Amino acid sequence: MGKLLKITLVGIVLAFVGERIVRFRERMGATRTLDPVELPNCHLLEGIEAGSEDIDILPNGLAFISAGLKYPGIKSFAPDKPGEILLLDMTDKNPVPVPLTISPGFDVDSFNPHGISTYIDRKDDTVYLLVVNHPQFKSTVEVFKFVEEENALEHLKTIRHDLLPRINDLVAMGPDSFYATNDHYFTNSIMSNLEMFLGLRWTNVIYYSPKEVKEVATDFCMANGINVSPDNKYIYVADIFGNDIHVLRKNPDWSLTPVKVIRVQNILSEKPIVTQVYVNNGSVLQGSSVACVYDKKLLVGTVFHRALYCELEDQ
């Protein structure tokens, strides 16, 4: 009877592990095939060789690019070079990314930028850039003021908080307030990998301001990209392992109310709600992480690789 119980338990464990492996491969898209979709007049941007993980474009066409991310388990083409913020003028006929200098006193050697977001103060048009930073693989938010005439960033403050242990991305609500995603529950690499493998829905969205910090949304497999709607009424959260985008209503107290979930995987169905404008199998871009549009121009960034600039066709 004891042997039968052991065999039964082993069988249950093996079945569970097998099912988790299959689900994990599905979430990672390991079995997905891609049919290329090309755009005219596409080219890789010069000067970006080691990542362009996030991009934010100002109304005047100036694009900030987060470059050089180093992250556990992710390949880096420039492991010894600090990260940087690049500036690209999307109004130029042939735009070229330019590194922004950072004010003295900021530790540029440990700069490891991830998600970024801009905020424009309507009182004086000051542009603030909020940057998720991972010095020594920790998580902070760096607040900069953009000095356009000098192509520079003036560092104003560093934000740390216990509710922001694994920040991936953020969207600015003010000069030093924002919504941010934690893409893992655990900070330990072994436990965070186990968390992904088991498909635990423990990641969340945090609202931060100097006066209040609180969890405003949870139950994501891996909360990743975050942004705000053009009318400033809704917050969008991408759950990359859930293969969906969550739409949440902003409330006056900064809490969030779920409105709907957009299932991205039905892009391959007969009635897709998402249109594919560019698809590549890795021959041009590897590990794409962000896409931004300005005046019919598309900019695609990657976690650790290059950046692509294209012109969109009229739909």
Automatic annotation (TrEMBL):
Gene3D superfamilies: TolB, C-terminal domain. Disulfide bonds join C42-C310. One of its GO terms (biological process) is response to toxic substance. Keywords: Calcium, Disulfide bond, Glycoprotein, Hydrolase, Metal-binding, Signal. It catalyses: a phenyl acetate + H2O = a phenol + acetate + H(+). Binds 2 calcium ions per subunit. Its cofactor is Ca(2+). Ca(2+) 1 binds at E53, I116, N168, N224. Transmembrane segments: none annotated. Glycans are attached at N281. One of its GO terms (molecular function) is metal ion binding. Glycosylated. Ca(2+) 2 binds at D54, D169. The active site is at H114 (proton acceptor). It is an enzyme of class 3 (hydrolase). Belongs to the paraoxonase family. This is Paraoxonase.
